[in-house]
Amino acid sequence: MTSTSVFSALAPYGWDEAWADAFAPYESEGLLPGRVVRVDRGQCDVVTADGTLRADTAFVTPHDPLRVLCTGDWAVVEPAGTPRYVRSYLPRRTAFVRSTSSKRSEGQILAANVDHAIIAVSLAVELELGRIERFLALAWESGAQPVVVLTKADLVPDAVTLSHLVEDVQATAPGVPVLTVSAQDGDGLDVLSAVVSGGTSVLLGQSGAGKSTLANALVGADVMTVHTTRDVDGKGRHTTTTRNLLALPGGGVLIDTPGLRGVGLWDAGVGVGQVFSEIEALAERCRFQDCAHESEPGCAVLAALDSGELSERRLESYRKLIRENQRIVAKTDARLRAEIRKDWKKKGAQGKAAMEAKRGSWR
């Protein structure tokens, strides 16, 4: 099969000249390129110029969980054999990673080579702004462009309420497009379709956020099973149990993911800084470079808090995510662990000195 026919067959799945150049060393060995559309235990489905085939992943199962084959990867596949084997995969452009819920402090890669991270948030329940900030931090860290999609807009009682909800999310997501969509009525789908038509998008969110319904609407067919949400809390069952890559009729590729209960950060310091860009900008005006924004004199962040320019909720969320990310990184970085312990001791000494001074004033 010629490189031209390979290009035309795989272009709908995101194949381009840069991927072709990266694959060139394998082409001389007679191996095939293909996009991973689904990964199961030990096996995966790969779409190639010859069609979709099932392949074994025994050669690409390293001990590092961040290097395992993932939906969205460009695989290097053997041209024949029973079973077929994935021999390698091309270097990733982006990778969406979260920490696992286990105590081993491992990262879990959810999707690879993603251009847009679509964060689905249901308007059928009360907004959890802190959770949106978590998703945004991981999205920015991945290298993808985040987009917040507020689903089930038809359930909001009036336009004024909807406008206020959008404003709340926009304040939480600086520099991020915020779209409202009703898959039920079709409202807003044209705008979202235009966004996802340019590259690969991953669909993220909690169970009950309407991801599978949204995926069906974008594909134009019932490719994903949809279950109703519970009336008591608006949450749903895990309709999607695997990560699936779907080619969209209007162009672009969509990766649907299972609902995420836990959204733990994984070495996402840059992403957190991007989400809270206004706090990072204020911090540059603090008197001390190592200002912790707690009680230091000349702290621009605390001054903004006092003036009402910065909300208490926003600052607390920033502190929480910074602490969490530091804990995750410190588990694999001995130097950072030592720095954090030193900081704790310093703050403990300061607190002790303040208490002693207070007791002295009582005498």
Can you describe what's shown?
37% of the residues lie in helices and 20% in strands. With 363 residues, the protein is an alpha/beta fold. Residues 229-240 have low confidence and may be disordered.
Layout of secondary structure:
Layout: H1 3-10, H2 17-27, E1 32-40, E2 43-48, E3 51-56, E4 74-77, E5 84-89, E6 95-99, E7 107-112, E8 116-122, H3 129-142, E9 145-151, H4 159-172, E10 178-180, H5 189-196, E11 200-204, H6 211-219, E12 244-247, E13 253-256, H7 269-275, H8 277-283, H9 300-307, H10 312-330, H11 334-362
Parallel strand pairs: 3-5, 8-9, 8-11, 9-10, 11-13
Antiparallel strand pairs: 1-2, 1-4, 2-3, 4-5, 6-7, 12-13
Helix pairs in contact: 3-7, 7-8, 10-11
Briefly say what this structure is.
With 363 residues, this protein is an alpha/beta fold. It is 37% helix and 20% strand.
Helix count, per DSSP?
11
Strand content: 15-25%
CATH architecture name of the largest domain: 3-Layer(aba) Sandwich
Proportion of helical residues: 25-40%
Q: C-alpha Rg, in Å?
A: 24 Å
